[in-house]
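Q: What structure does this chain adopt?
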Amino acid sequence: MCFLYYLFWFFLLALLPSYGLGLTKDNQSLAEIQEVAHNFVLKQARSLPGNIEVTPGSLDRRLRLPKCSHPLKAFFPSGSRPRGNTTVGVRCTGETPWTVYLSVKMAVYGKVLVATHAISSGFPLSLADLRLERRDLSELRQGYLNEPAQAVGKRLKRPVGLGAIITPGMLEIPKLIRRGQQVILMATAPGLQVNMKGQALEDAGAGEHIRVRNTSSRRIVEGTVTAAGLVQVQM
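A:
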């Protein structure tokens, strides 16, 4: 009897691994679902600038789904988008259809301009005030700058602290010309330059367009501010 008892348990234990493998084989791999979601989000976000990192959320290990007979398909539910924390659906369209949803974290890292120290408003920025730091671009709803030249010489509309991200909306171009000011209109062509006097009809900084009234003809022309009191116009 004792021999038969041990023989029974020997065969039972020998069969258990095969039985367990059979159960696993019939269930959909949760890791495969995560991989499908990961690849889908990565593909959708490839047009974004910077280094993209996609991290799919975990699925409940107790989840048992029939193994799909067709390739899995991922999609964004209504209202989701490939940015920040999002939700991805993974669908099976096989003989036994099912759909699951999982959270996915998507980050797009790139270099952005930040302040090297606390800076007061109205302060003209220099290279010493700025540096580039790696940040998650997907979280920067107000935009960002990625070149010091985009900010150098401009002034802050409000004070910022150490490490603050410099956004386009924070900056203003110093006005080189004020409304009512007498300016020089400069028109150039190959081998020819004509200077005329004019009166500015609005404020403008370097590189900005401005309307100017020609003092002689009284005509209103548009030009680009190139220096203090100087406006470049087309011939």
